[in-house]
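Hi Q.,

Before the meeting this afternoon, I wanted you to have the PMV prediction in hand. No need to reply - just skim if you have a minute. The sequence and ligand are here:
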Amino acid sequence: MKATAVAPANIAFIKYWGRRDAKLRLPYNSSISMNLNACITTTTVEFSPCYHADEFMLLTQNKFIKSSLELKFNELEKERISAHLDRIRDLANIKDMSKVVTINNFPKSSGIASSASGFAALTLAATAAAGLDLSEKDLSILARFGSGSACRSVPDGFVEWLTGDSSETSFAYSLYRASYWDLRDVLVIIGSEPKKIPTSAGMDNVTTSPLWRVRLRALPQRILRIKEALKTKNFVLLGRIIEEDCLEMHRGMQTQDPPLFYWNDKTRKIMEAVYNWRKDGLAVYFTIDAGPNVHIICEGKDEQRVTGLAKTIKGVEAVISNKPAQGTRLTKEHLF
Ligand code: PMV
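Predicted structure with the ligand bound:
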């Protein structure tokens, strides 16, 4: 009753911000994302009568930290993970407690979707350990209950999460495989401090922004445009829509009550640098999630130039270049 899964984080090109049903985590709008090959969570779950309570261990390991470092889940996070394990125990009709060991190769809670890769890996590892063999669609639905964006880390490559009109119809599917388009997400890390306001709490107030309705009205058309950009591999169109949607989501966050400010001075500096590089003829666009770090989207042919430029910006802690990645999968390499 032990299984291990590997899941990628994902970057949203069209963002998910706000839930019309918080309990079922049903979003107000569909979102579109790309899986990231260099921001990965690996999780091993074992159910056994030997455990008297769920035990968790969270590690981080990357090239900046020589040996793996143990981090702590806070109480709320532990409750959220246990609640997810309970859903899986109910489905599998088992009562055993579990041991969960999980390792991220990127900082937790810093606007890099650790909840997405984390809950996607947990969902696949725990269901497999419990003896369930779920379809990709059912895994995506189940992962959504842990964290909305996690449902997008399940399928391959470029993904759409459908709003749906019920739990069964709100899942993510692959629009294109990872090999479809050689894009990069050059992730510029300027702060790996945990964020103060978790996205779940932030999303509760989404409707207090006067701009929320404006974005919701604009989204169906924007989603059609971005799908066209993906279909025709029109990078300039894709980049413009990605930036447009990011800025609109953040304007919404900043005008919520209470307002949410995820950017800092370094974030703004990088956004400006991206504009300047673009003026100089480099095809680059930015997007930012619920944290200060900036994702610079470019084509594979410009990767070296973009990473080189990003590293010259003062205050940058790390630059992680991501290719499109396959979705969540099982591995035989257990963590314990
Ligand atoms: O599902 P969560 O709690 O990881 O929320 C994700 C929210 C954003 O990262 C800001 C946008 C998105 O679509 O990923």
